[in-house]
Write the structure tokens for this entry.
Amino acid sequence: MNHERHERYEQHENKEIAPEHKAQLINYLRATGMKLGLLVNFGSYPKAEITRMAL
């Protein structure tokens, strides 16, 4: 889901963010020319895990 032209957001519900999720976000950023991306994992207890990645 895109909120702005320069950011990409990915939402997951797993126990932790896996390396393949990070790789997928990097591929999206490269393919779209965006510079900033966020991975949000709602499956980690007790609070959401957020990973910010930039090219």
Observations:
- The chain has one helix and three strands.
